[in-house]
Amino acid sequence: MEFHVIAPSIELTLEQPFVEIVNRNACIDARTSSRVASTGHDMTVFHNDGQFLAWELFNCLKWLWRGDLKTTKRYLIKLGKAIEASEGDPQSASE
């Protein structure tokens, strides 16, 4: 189980499933999406030019804590390739 506290100024879209515990000023209503949250197997990596990189790495830590090394490794490989591709020159990552 995870708990997230979100400041009203933070841009975040909530995907299903989630359980609403507290919703002050109906803050959650405007952030809720009908989409189902991605799993480690089908998540888009390095989206928005790395704007959510810290969250992506946090997900990897969660998978490791849960003992899911396979998903973590697969995701980190995809993430590395996406970062290299975003730089335009694959050789620049090895320099």
Describe this protein's structure.
- This protein has two helices and two strands, in the order E-E-H-H.
- With 95 residues, it is α+β, with helices and mostly antiparallel strands.
- Helix 1 (53-65) packs antiparallel against helix 2 (69-86).
- The radius of gyration is 16 Å and the shape is globular.
Task: Please write out the topology.
Blueprint: E1 14-16, E2 32-36, H1 53-65, H2 69-86
Parallel strand pairs: 1-2
Helix pairs in contact: 1-2
Helix content: 25-40%
Rounded to the nearest angstrom, the radius of gyration is: 16 Å
- In total, how many beta strands? 2
Write down the overall mean pLDDT. Answer: 78
What fraction of the residues are assigned to beta strands by DSSP? Answer: 5-15%
Summarize the model shown:
The chain is of the alpha+beta class.
Keywords, please?
95 residues; alpha+beta; 2 domains; two-stranded parallel sheet; 2 helices; 8% strand
